[in-house]
């Protein structure tokens, strides 16, 4: 089987392992037909066989073994693709995975085994939820809500248009063509149209992840793929029922519309309920931090399953749950749990996606096919045509209501990004035994292949060609956050002055409601009162502090803009900038560096073996401590910065900041004179520095550094200082 | 429709429409609102803004009200200072800063509009008219934003404002000697800071063509 390439001449070890495993599985499944003799049976022997040293009992572990094998295979494939850099830049990963699936399916068929098909239970209950949860939990809420009108129009009206247009035209074509296709009636065509018309979130995610398109387009296409689930569910059930019955009445039509609202709003409601429950639960988990991520996952999965029980839209339920839960859960859980949630979601969704595409390939080889040139070709063409027409028509209407209009380029990307994927295939698979089922399945598979391969591969060069705006890579800065909030309030105010209740007014009202009532219930402790700007700032500080710990070098030292550059200068005449000789400077710097290195090692060993004194464990409790730590880093930075002041000022007695072994003698006399002037314009470290002066002459041992940096007012029992987040 | 009947100042509207870019219907509606706020007077004063209930719970209401009386927003070059009352023309001029840019503009015109909007924001921050936003003024902005959060606002506001100024300084100046002092954010630095911010598409409100002022007080 095709695997990562290795330098020619060495037999790839991975390849051999995989081949061995496959042979093993094949042999094992072959032995399944052999007479059952798994356990040894010493009492019933016809002839003495001797005590069996090595036995073979595969059936016992068959199912988990095969599942693990498949997942392992999928992940090895993923690894392999990144070893070949050129291929992964041209071809999106989804295509490669489908190809691998085709090969594996072919291989399995070749050895005479029955290949597993993409079972719909497996797909809808196990493979799809992680992807949707990952998408929903990390959904960028602001662009989504700003464009929700557009997204809904595309999702609902666009999908309806696609379904009916395709169904209708297919019916016409079938009637015209005659022959084998004449037996296809209108309702079957409409059913087929409804299956093929829905844009698939898995495929969209897989392709759009790699092209890094700007946020607006991404959220438009992706949001549409998520929200059209409700429409698909209703249409699918509607036409499935009716193609069994054969006729449609007006009453049925009305009921279908009602059903649509029930399905979508019901799904959202179920999701929101579970989301609130999850947020409420997370409020109490401060003592059992390790199971926090599980609550998030389980509540979301329950939301999905509960929605599926009532045939409501599971996808919308999952999205609603994730979006509702997230702000409150993030305020409540520890930093580690947050990281765990993030990584587990990414991990599961990645595995799911890989498996889906591989299985798609395998099922293609396995499934029964009925090829009909007309039908298939017309389907593919119609998909494109109806999508383009739908997007253009809808955009014309939507642009009348949008402030930021969609340009032609945007429309093209939206139309071209309407990929079909595994959901369409599974829905086709779910069809009851319809006479045309195999034909439909073949057509669906072809459409999926076409969109994923052709559109998926060409969208990246097209994006480059059309110079579509890409996603901006930089992280949000504190200034942008300030101005975002400022702008929100400004626009709300101007709307008030103008006198009409617009978009911003309602958003402001919702925010205020959230703040006064909801947050109080769902967020533990003091965090419930924290405005968004402060949480953003704290997160940023935390991130910076961690970066400082991890980088741990003084590389950025010279020329850094620090607080002194922006603090208004206090007029202090006669302030002499204390100066130290070159030699002293070197000595101090050396000692500082070695101390900070040692602190770094100390910090590392603490965080690896000692869960107790973990500085970043509980952001909630350690906020003030963190802030102080940041001040200390500032102070240290300033100290070392001070020491690099160029030697062109007049000679003054050496700096009395930190006492080292060599300085003990000469220091004590000059200290008092220089001390007052050392303080300078800096407010916060002044206290710390004065403490330095007051600390008794230190003995020349390692502990001097810990003492020299003692915190103001902190009891000296803090011997186990795990802070000092490294040098900058 | 009410708007069509009350267009007595047709020639005046033409001039205003050209200056601000609003359509006649929009100008008519805004005129109605102006009359509502000023109690059918010719000019608006600061106190008239206090009658708007929504503005009362807005944390930056004083800045918003000041912006209406700030001469720098009246599109007259080199005008500084504030006035005590404004007429409808000035009211409309200030409002025109929030008009969404037309889709048919080319890049240069978009740049002009963007600069205008950024200038408006800058003027809101720069309360002493000296052309730079000092640390004190920025701190004031952050404090106002956090003013509804009570006690924990003050200290953190200082910290946040300091961090923000540090960021501006890093972006604009790059490297500074320890003795150099960063005076404040000039307009160029402000522009550079908010380069990614897409002000031209975000700082807009929807000006209706239909009269909805009767729906709300």
From TrEMBL, chain A:
It is a multi-pass membrane protein. Residues 557-652 form the Sodium/hydrogen exchanger regulatory region domain. Residues 643-728 are annotated as: Disordered. Residues 658-669, 702-713 have a biased composition (Basic and acidic residues). Residues 71-464 form the Cation/H+ exchanger transmembrane domain. One of its GO terms (molecular function) is sodium:proton antiporter activity. The chain crosses the membrane at residues 67-84, 91-111, 123-139, 151-173, 185-207, 219-239, 254-277, 350-367, 373-399, 411-432, 438-463. Gene3D superfamilies: 6.10.140.1330, 6.10.250.1040, 6.10.250.2020. GO terms for cellular component: basolateral plasma membrane. InterPro entries: Cation/H_exchanger_CPA1 (IPR018422), Cation/H_exchanger_TM (IPR006153), NaH_exchanger (IPR004709), NHE-1-like (IPR001970), NHE_CaM-bd (IPR032103). Belongs to the monovalent cation:proton antiporter 1 (CPA1) transporter (TC 2.A.36) family. This is Sodium/hydrogen exchanger. It comes from Gadus morhua (Atlantic cod).
TrEMBL record, chain B:
Pfam families: EF-hand_1. Gene3D superfamilies: EF-hand. It is found in: Cell projection, Lamellipodium; Cell projection, Ruffle membrane; Cytoplasm; Membrane. Its main location: other. One of its GO terms (molecular function) is calcium ion binding. The keyword Calcium applies. GO terms for biological process: cell differentiation. It is a lipid-anchor. Keywords: Calcium, Cell membrane, Cell projection, Cytoplasm, Differentiation, Lipoprotein, Membrane, Metal-binding, Myristate, Nucleus, Protein kinase inhibitor. One of its GO terms (cellular component) is cytoplasm. Residues 113-148 form the EF-hand domain. PROSITE patterns: EF_HAND_1, EF_HAND_2. Belongs to the calcineurin regulatory subunit family. CHP subfamily. This is Calcineurin B homologous protein 3. The lineage of its organism: Eukaryota, Metazoa, Chordata, Craniata, Vertebrata. The gene is tescb.
């Amino acid at each position: 089987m095709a695997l990562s390439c290795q330098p020619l001449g060495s037999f790839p070890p991975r390849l051999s392992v995989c081949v061995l495993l496959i042979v093993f599985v094949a042999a094992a499944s072959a032995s399944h037909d052999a007479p059952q003799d798994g356990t040894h049976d010493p009492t019933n022997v016809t002839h003495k066989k001797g005590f069996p040293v090595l036995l073979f009992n595969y059936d016992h572990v068959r199912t988990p073994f095969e599942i693990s094998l498949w997942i392992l295979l999928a992940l090895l494939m993923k690894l392999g693709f990144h070893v070949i850099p050129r291929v992964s830049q041209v071809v999106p990963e989804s295509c490669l995975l489908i190809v691998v699936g085709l090969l594996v399916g072919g291989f399995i068929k070749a050895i005479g085994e029955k290949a597993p098909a993409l079972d719909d239970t497996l797909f809808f209950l196990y493979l799809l939820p992680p992807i949707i949860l990952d998408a929903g939990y990390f959904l960028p809420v602001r662009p989504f809500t700003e464009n929700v009108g557009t997204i809904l129009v595309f999702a609902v009206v666009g999908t309806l248009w696609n379904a009916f247009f395709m169904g209708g035209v297919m019916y016409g074509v079938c009637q015209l063509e005659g022959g084998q296709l004449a037996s296809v009636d209108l309702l079957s065509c409409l059913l087929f149209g409804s299956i093929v018309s829905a844009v698939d979130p898995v495929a969209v995610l897989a392709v759009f992840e790699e092209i890094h398109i700007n946020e607006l387009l991404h959220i438009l296409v992706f949001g549409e793929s998520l929200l059209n689930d409700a429409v698909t569910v209703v249409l699918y059930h509607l036409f499935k029922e009716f193609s069994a019955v054969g006729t449609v009445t007006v009453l049925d039509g009305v009921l279908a519309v009602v059903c649509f609202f029930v399905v979508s709003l019901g799904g959202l409601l179920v999701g929101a309920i579970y989301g609130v429950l999850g947020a409420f639960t997370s409020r109490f988990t401060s003592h059992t931090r390790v199971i926090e991520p599980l609550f998030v996952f389980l509540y979301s999965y329950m939301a999905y399953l509960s929605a599926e029980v009532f045939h409501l839209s599971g996808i919308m339920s999952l999205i609603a749950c994730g979006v509702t839960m997230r702000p409150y859960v993030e305020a409540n859980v520890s930093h580690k749990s947050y990281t765990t949630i993030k990584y587990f979601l990414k991990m599961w969704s990645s595995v799911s996606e890989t498996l889906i595409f591989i299985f798609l390939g395998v099922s293609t080889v396995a499934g029964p096919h009925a090829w009909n040139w007309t039908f298939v070709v017309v389907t593919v063409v119609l998909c494109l045509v109806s999508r383009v027409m739908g997007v253009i028509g809808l955009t014309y209407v939507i642009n009348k209501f949008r402030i930021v209009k969609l340009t032609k380029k945007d429309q093209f990307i939206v139309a071209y990004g309407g990929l079909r994927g595994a959901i369409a295939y599974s829905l086709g698979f779910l069809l009851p035994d319809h006479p045309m089922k195999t034909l439909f399945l073949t057509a669906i598979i072809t459409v999926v292949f076409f969109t994923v391969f052709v559109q998926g591969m060409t969208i990246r060069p097209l994006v480059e060609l059309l110079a579509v705006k890409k996603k901006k890579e930089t992280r949000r800065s504190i200034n942008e956050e300030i101005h975002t909030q400022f702008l929100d309030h400004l626009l709300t105010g101007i709307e008030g002055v103008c006198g009409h209740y617009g978009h911003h007014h309602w958003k402001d009202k919702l925010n205020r409601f959230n703040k006064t009532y909801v947050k109080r219930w769902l967020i533990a402790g003091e965090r419930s009162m924290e405005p968004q700007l402060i949480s953003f700032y704290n997160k940023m500080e935390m991130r910076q502090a961690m970066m400082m710990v991890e980088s741990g070098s003084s590389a950025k030292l010279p020329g850094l803009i620090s607080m002194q550059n922006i603090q208004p200068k206090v007029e202090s005449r006669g302030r002499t900038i204390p100066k130290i000789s070159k030699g002293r400077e070197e000595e101090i710097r050396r000692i500082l560096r070695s101390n900070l290195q040692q602190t770094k090692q100390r910090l590392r060993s603490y965080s690896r073996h000692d869960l107790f004194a973990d500085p970043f464990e509980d952001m909630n409790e350690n906020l003030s401590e963190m802030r102080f730590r940041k001040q200390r880093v500032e102070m240290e930075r300033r100290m070392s910065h001070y020491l690099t002041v160029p030697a062109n000022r007049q000679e003054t007695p050496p700096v009395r900041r930190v006492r080292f072994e060599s300085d003990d003698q000469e220091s004590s006399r000059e200290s008092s004179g220089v001390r007052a002037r050392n303080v300078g314009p800096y407010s916060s470290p002044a206290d710390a520095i004065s403490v330095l002066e007051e600390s008794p002459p230190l003995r020349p041992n390692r502990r001097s550094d810990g003492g020299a940096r003692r915190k103001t007012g902190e009891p000296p029992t803090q011997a186990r200082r795990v802070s000092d987040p490294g040098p900058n | 429709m009410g708007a069509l009947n009350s267009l007595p100042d047709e020639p005046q509207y033409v001039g205003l429409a050209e200056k601000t870019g609003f359509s006649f219907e929009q100008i008519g509606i805004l005129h109605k609102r102006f009359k509502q706020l000023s109690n059918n007077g010719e000019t608006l004063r600061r106190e008239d803004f206090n009658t708007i209930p929504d503005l009362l719970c807005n944390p930056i209401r004083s800045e918003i009200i000041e912006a209406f009386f700030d001469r720098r927003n009246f599109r007259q070059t080199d005008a500084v200072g504030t006035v005590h009352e404004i007429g409808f023309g000035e009211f409309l001029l200030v409002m025109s800063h929030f008009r969404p840019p037309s889709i048919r503009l080319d890049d240069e015109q978009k740049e002009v509009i963007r600069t205008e909007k950024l200038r408006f924001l800058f003027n809101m921050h720069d309360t002493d008219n000296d052309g730079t936003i000092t640390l004190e003024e920025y701190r004031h902005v952050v404090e106002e934003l956090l003013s509804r959060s009570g006690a924990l606002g003050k200290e953190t506001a200082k910290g946040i404002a300091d961090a923000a100024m540090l960021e501006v300084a890093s972006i604009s100046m790059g490297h500074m000697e320890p003795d150099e002092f960063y005076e404040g954010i000039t307009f160029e630095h402000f522009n550079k800071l908010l380069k990614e911010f897409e002000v031209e598409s975000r700082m807009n409100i929807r000006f209706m063509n239909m009269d909805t002022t009767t729906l709300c007080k």
